[in-house]
From TrEMBL:
UniProt entry tagged with the keyword Phosphoprotein: no
Record keywords: ATP-binding, Cell inner membrane, Cell membrane, Membrane, Nucleotide-binding, Translocase, Transport
InterPro entries in alphabetical order: AAA+_ATPase, ABC_transporter-like_ATP-bd, ABC_transporter-like_CS, P-loop_NTPase
GO molecular function (one): ATP hydrolysis activity
Residues covered by the ABC transporter domain: 8-225
Listed NCBIfam families: PRK10247.1 (NF007601)
Record's protein name: Iron ABC transporter ATP-binding protein FetA
Pfam family, one: ABC_tran
Organism placement in taxonomy: Bacteria, Pseudomonadati, Pseudomonadota, Gammaproteobacteria, Enterobacterales
Length: 225
């Protein structure tokens, strides 16, 4: 069922572990070109919600729709190419930054232009020689940016971001914020971003405040930024 042209829609989504309710009756929708932020106190389920949307965890109740289709009817590979998730602590693999940036190309049986990869690194404030660095040499902030660059090699329709600037200084935070905002306005990507950063909140179309689940329905407030 179509609802206001939402590219992504959650209907009464819940998640619990044994008797512990973490998320309860979450309803939200995201349209192409929208930039929404999720905030809330520690332990209210923000990161869990993103992992459920990313299909890394399965909800214990409710449904998630992508382009009007229940995501359980889509192959994980197809869905994850269109709904891309960046964790606060990135999972990098292989030996080098190059290994990570070519991975999206390899699974599509394509070859990247190394000069374009270097340009991507520089756009995010990373030096040219970062491409050949071992992932073990990277700082937390460098890992966050490499993960984001990897996820943007092929533009997804939805980008899920979990505190991805938490390890960055103010200058690099500002740069990443601006780049993501341009992807929203120029490429029509939909972004759902978990953050506590007030500067990121200033860019948002809407701020969703999530409260801890404890009753029959979880309190979720929506406000325009």
């Amino acid at each position: 069922m179509k609802e206001n042209n939402a590219i992504l829609r959650l209907a009464n989504v819940g998640f619990q572990v044994d008797e512990m309710v973490i998320l309860n009756n979450i309803n939200l929708q995201l349209r192409a070109g929208e930039f929404k932020l999720i905030t809330g106190p520690s332990g209210c389920g923000k990161s869990t919600l993103l992992k459920i949307i990313a299909s890394l965890l399965s909800p214990t109740s409710g449904q998630i729709f992508f382009a009007d289709r229940d995501i359980t009817a889509l192959s994980p590979e197809t869905y994850r190419q269109q709904v891309s998730y960046c964790a606060q602590t990135p999972a990098l693999f292989g030996d080098s930054v190059y290994d990570n940036l070519i991975f999206p190309w390899q699974i599509r049986h394509q070859q990247p232009d190394p000069a374009a990869l270097v340009a991507d690194l520089q756009r995010f404030g990373l030096a040219e020689n970062t491409l050949e660095k071992s992932i073990n040499e990277l700082s937390g902030g460098e890992k966050q940016r490499v993960s984001l660059i990897r996820n943007l090699q092929f533009l997804p329709q939805v980008l899920l971001l979990d505190e991805i600037t938490s390890a960055l200084d103010e200058s690099n935070k500002h740069n990443v914020n601006d780049i993501i905002h341009r992807y929203v306005t120029e490429k029509n990507i939909a972004v759902l971003w978990v953050t506590h950063d007030r500067n990121e909140i200033a860019h948002a179309d809407e701020v969703i405040t999530l409260q801890p689940a404890g009753g029959s329905a979880q309190e979720v407030s929506h406000e325009r930024a």
